[in-house]
Specification:
The structure holds 2 protein chains of 2 kinds. Chain A is mostly helical. Helices cover about 75% and strands about 0% of the residues of chain A. The radius of gyration of chain A is 22 Å and the shape is globular. Classes of the chains: A mainly alpha, B alpha+beta.
Chain lengths: ~280, ~110
């Protein structure tokens, strides 16, 4: 039972962190709860489908189907997150102002709700498939009874959801005029981490095998499969043995996202020239 | 298999032999089996600095995930299924791996020397 609780907790926390950040990033936007729940539901459904077709997926692309699939959905998620951040750079200020004035749900809404819901769906899909396969396999084969595995799974799920909720609450405590800058910052790092993971999968599938030398090895200090390592991997793309290519793509993704946010941000209203200077010019 | 398939089928071993002979940098092939949620053999060896291809056959009646942080690999293998785990050339050392869904018993190690 404990084993099931731990494995489910571990997977749920990874998807849950992403869901928590997305919920905070859409704070106050009308209809966002429906979108996020829709994303989670689609993810669970997709994970079940993936579990059923695990064999066929595995055999696809000369046995590299799992890797190609993971790389594709990660790349898609990176694009969606980038789009959200650019949109927020354009409209975040008005959204925050409206939210502050109204104090509740605003109609302006983020156009990128669907994109973010898709990202939540992808996160749930990736982690959920493993949970489904594990629970299903162990409920059938368990010596201790299927209900014990199920109970463990539910405890793990509850724990994971609780942690995600704490992350969400912690984020929305941030004053509203700063909230969206913080969530955009977090989302940029989520995206960079996903891009780096995507490169790793492409490398494993032998599709992108340049600069695959290991850049550093911190697996003895902070292994990626420890709880702290996993949380950091989800949040900022921590890797204990990244390749050179992964690091390049990670930095490139951050550069592109922050660059695009700067380019698309509306110009700040120009401050009027100081009166003193103006009067002096007039006097001359 | 139809009539067309037969000659190709007979040719296959010859083709494999030929391709192995041609490519000096073919990965080192290792066969691994999962049975009763245990790896057989539980200890595998490979030379350092050479690409490795582990062919894992799951003879259990349960799905498993080959998982190794040290090898940076996670791969689902269905019941009765076979997957190939391709590894880049490795430095000498011990690289533990496990079957994540039955980690109590499914433990193994790749020793690179």
């Amino acid at each position: 039972m404990l084993g099931a609780a731990i494995i489910v907790f571990r997977e749920v926390i990874e998807a849950g962190l992403i869901a928590g950040i997305v919920l905070a990033a859409t704070e106050g936007v009308q209809g966002r709860t429906a979108y996020v729940i829709g994303g989670i539901a689609a993810g669970v459904f997709g994970a079940s489908l993936l579990a059923v077709f695990a064999g066929s997926l595995s055999d696809a692309f000369e046995g590299m189907g799992q890797e190609v699939f993971s790389a594709s959905i990660l790349a898609f998620a990176v694009v969606m997150l980038t789009w959200h951040n650019v949109w927020m750079a354009q409209h975040g200020r008005e959204l925050a102002a409206e939210l502050k004035a109204a104090g509740h749900a605003v109609a302006t809404g983020s156009k990128t709700l669907l994109a973010l819901a898709a990202v939540v769906g992808i996160a749930v899909l990736r982690e959920g498939a493993e949970v489904v396969l594990f629970l299903y396999g162990n409920m059938i084969a368990s010596n201790s009874g299927w209900w014990e595995v199920l109970a463990g799974g539910l405890i793990g799920l509850a724990g994971g959801v609780a942690v995600s909720f704490i992350v969400f609450i912690g984020l929305v405590l941030i004053p509203v005029h700063r909230l969206f800058s913080v969530t955009s910052f977090l989302i940029a790092f989520l995206a960079a981490g996903m891009a780096s993971q995507c490169v790793h999968y492409l490398d494993q599938a032998d599709i992108l095998n340049v600069l695959s030398a290991t850049l550093w090895d911190t697996s003895s200090i902070l292994p990626k499969d420890s709880i702290a390592g996993r949380i950091l991997a989800t949040l900022i793309g921590y890797d204990d043995k990244p390749s050179v290519m992964q690091a390049i793509v990670y930095l490139a993704t951050l550069t592109v996202i922050f660059g695009a946010m700067r380019v698309f941000a509306p110009a700040k209203p120009q401050p009027k020239p100081p009166v003193a200077m103006g009067s002096r010019v007039a006097a001359e | 298999m139809g009539m067309k398939g037969l000659p190709a089928f007979l040719l296959l071993p010859a083709l494999i032999a030929l391709s192995t002979a041609c490519h000096a940098d073919e990965p080192v092939a290792i066969d691994l089996t999962l049975k009763d949620h245990k790896f057989e053999p539980a200890e595998i060896r490979a030379p350092a600095g050479k690409a490795i291809a582990i062919t894992l056959k799951n003879e259990d009646d349960a799905i498993e995930e080959f998982d190794s942080n040290s090898l940076r690999t996670e791969k689902i293998v269905t019941k009765g299924g076979t997957v190939t785990i391709r590894l880049k050339p490795l430095a000498a050392g011990r690289y533990p791996f496990q079957g994540e869904f039955h980690a109590k018993t499914a433990q193994g190690v790749l020793i690179v020397e």
